[in-house]
Amino acid sequence: MSVYDYSAVLIGGEEKSLSDYKGRVLLIVNTASKCGFTPQYRELQALYDQYREQGLEVLGFPCNQFLRQEPASHEEIWKFCHINYGVSFPLFEKVHVKGKNIHPLYRYLTRKAPGFLSKKVKWNFTKFLVDRQGSVIKRYAPTTKPQRIRKAIEKALSS
C-alpha cells in the first residue's frame, strides 16, 4: 500500500485520487486557519513555489479537531488561505486526522510514521513527507517550520 491507494475531496468538491500525484514528492499537512501555526501557510507556499517544477506537491487538509481552530466553511477556508497567504497548492475538504472518524489517508500516514509516544496526530500543521513512490519518509511536528524540511525535500526530489 501507498498514499496512492487513497483519495480525498478537494475543497471545490471534486474527488481526487492521490494516484494523480504518482512520481511526485508530497508534503501532506493538516491545517487550520485560527491556529498559532497558521502563518506556516506562507512557508508552505514558498516551498511549493520553489520546488513545484522539480516535482513537489503540498497538500493541505483542513481539520477542526484541535480546539475548533478550523470552523469555517470550505469556501471561507479557500478564500482565507488565498487572500492572506497566496495559497495555490491543493486544499482538500476538512477531514478528521484522529479518532473513530479518521480519514483513511491519515490512518495510513500515522501507521507508517507514528509520532513521539503516540501514533495520533496531536495538533494542527503536522507534516508528512512522502517520496515519489508514495511511501512515507518522515513525520514532522507542528513546531517544525516548513523551511526546516527543505533539505529533506531536496533529497527526496533528487531520488
Automatic annotation (TrEMBL):
Residues 1-158 form the Thioredoxin domain. InterPro entries: Glutathione_peroxidase, GPX_AS, GPX_CS, Thioredoxin-like_sf, Thioredoxin_domain. Keywords: Oxidoreductase, Peroxidase. Gene3D superfamilies: Glutaredoxin. One of its GO terms (molecular function) is glutathione peroxidase activity. It holds the Pfam family GSHPx. It comes from the Bacteria. Belongs to the glutathione peroxidase family. This is Glutathione peroxidase.
